[in-house]
Amino acid sequence: MQPAGMVQPIPAQVIPAQVIRTRGLSKTYPNGQAVFAGVHLDISADQRVALIGSNGAGKSTLLKCLIGLLPSTGGEIMTLGESFSTAPSPAQLRRLRRQIGFVFQNHGLVGRQSVLTNVVQGKLGLPGSWRAFHHAIARREWREEAMQALAEVRLAERAGARADQLSGGQAQRVAIARALIRRPKLMIADEPAASLDPAVGREIMTIFSDLAREHGITLVYTTHDMKHALDYSDRVIALRAGQVHFDLPTAQVRARDMDEVFTHGAFADEGAPDIPAAQGANAGGLLHA
Amino acid sequence: MRSASVHSASMRSAGLPPRLPSISPVSFTLLVVFGAVFLASVGQVAPAPEKLAAGAPRMAELVGRMLPPNTDPGFLQRMGWRIVETLQIALVGTVFGVILSLPVGWLAARGISPLGVFRQLPRALVSLFRTVPDLVWALLFVSTLGLGAVAGTMTIVVDTIGFCGRFFAEAMEEADMKPQEALHAIGANRVTVLCGAILPDVMPTLINSSLFALEKAVRSSVVLGLVGAGGIGQELKVAFDLFQYRNASAIILAIFAIVLVMELLTDRLRAKFQ
């Protein structure tokens, strides 16, 4: 574990194909409330990164700042080669969006449209994409790509169904397919399994993790589920009290580290000091609950 | 016993709540003014009983002259073509009006309009179209475009924009924001968000409002002819002007049938699209 404020940034020159890099990033709301401050992050290509923290820790805000959807109030950001402080220029934002796939906690599907149309809509925002608002008028290759993406999330047979007829897990799989069709370099997922039951949540996280690895996509997801953080990532970044509490390869995360982020010491009282969190979770099942 | 007396004393000190809520001096004044205006108006414009009694025999005589309705084949054929023209005015006017209402509603919708604060301009236009009565619009179009069905169609277009523009804007404002946010996040522009997320979400409301507009247009189009804007109303005016009361009763029955059929039809369509 690294205590707050003692994060050792990885030197840029040793990071292959850096996707996200921040230096001294901070965000304060207009009412003066600080969300986070002094955040240094280095995320390289093909990593699967879990961003964890309790509710209100600033995970989602940090995620949005990293990709320019929210302006930061201090520090420097470099995402997918676009460097900016506070907010990207409109041209930078356009370039960023073209390379990023988004999945939200609430899938954000258009309920009265077909599954296929929802996936094709993933092409919107790309050059010459105005026809992508409905599959009936979309380019043939986009419809084929959408079917391929649906096949990858095992939902090709529901392509013609209306999105509001899907279960929560199926809708989230469609949202993943919609993000995949953009062929993103970076996939951003904000609590993708938070509104799902545990079994479906694991299924969604497995699909996410497998597809990211298979397509060589850098995956950054927020979660407050310890098991999701440990089982589907290569690296865990924990936010606590507006600081990066620790930033470690998943295998090195200790149960005590997780406990400090989520349960404020309860786990430590049960005498599980420094065993790796994943091992402890698998052995005792405490983190799987 | 002691407890009961304590309760009773407590009730006396609190007092019973009034049967009616208290009224403020301003509300009381407004109520009195409204009552005075109403009573003065009744004296000036409401029908006196003796006047109604005197008119009853004349009404009975008129109804007698209207019966039986004219069923002459030549007249029925002419009336049939006028009915077709009436429905054409209603249909074409409504379809053009609905199509134009979509961009107008979008431009006027709060939180969605690309015009920002200037969205008040299309809102004001829609209010103008809605508040001026259709017969006044018909008079304007007859003056500018001449007598006939074209003036009637233009009247229905304007009337439909006034009706649908407002409802479309309100429906778009209430559309689910999550799909819109998802599409905005990936860089979709306003028009594709409108077509891809907003319109599909509010489609049942749009269809419902459009069917109400069609029903309203049919009712309007039958009277537009009274000011020379085409349709069956024109035939009705001629019948009254020439004292052809049997023709008039046949036309009134036809109008009743058209409106009834249209209401039944739109009710069924609305139920289908719910």
Automatic annotation (TrEMBL), chain A:
Listed InterPro entries: AAA+_ATPase, ABC_transporter-like_ATP-bd, ABC_transporter-like_CS, MetN_ABC_transporter-like, P-loop_NTPase
The keyword Nucleus is annotated on this UniProt entry: no
Check the record and name the SMART domains matching this protein: AAA (SM00382)
Example GO molecular function: ATP binding
Task: Provide this UniProt record's keywords sorted from A to Z.
Answer: ATP-binding, Nucleotide-binding, Transport
Q: Where is the ABC transporter domain?
A: 20-266
Record family assignment: Belongs to the ABC transporter superfamily.
Q: What is this protein called?
A: ATP-binding cassette domain-containing protein
Which organism does this sequence originate in? Ancylobacter koreensis
TrEMBL record, chain B:
The molecule here is called: Phosphonate ABC transporter, permease protein PhnE
What range(s) does the ABC transmembrane type-1 domain occupy?
A: 83-266
Q: What's the chief localization of this chain?
A: membrane
User: Which keywords label this protein?
Assistant: Cell membrane, Membrane, Transmembrane, Transmembrane helix, Transport
PANTHER family the UniProt entry points to: ABC TRANSPORT SYSTEM PERMEASE PROTEIN P69, PHOSPHONATES TRANSPORT SYSTEM PERMEASE PROTEIN
User: Which CDD domains would you find in this protein's record?
Assistant: TM_PBP2
> What membrane topology does the UniProt entry give?
Multi-pass membrane protein
Q: Where is this chain's protein located in or outside the cell?
A: Cell membrane
Q: Which gene encodes it?
A: phnE
The protein's matches in InterPro entries, at most eight in alphabetical order, are given as: MetI-like (IPR000515), MetI-like_sf (IPR035906), PhnE/PtxC (IPR005769)
UniProt key word Membrane: yes
For this protein, the parts annotated as crossing the membrane are 20-42, 87-109, 135-158, 248-266
Checking Pfam families in the record gives:
BPD_transp_1
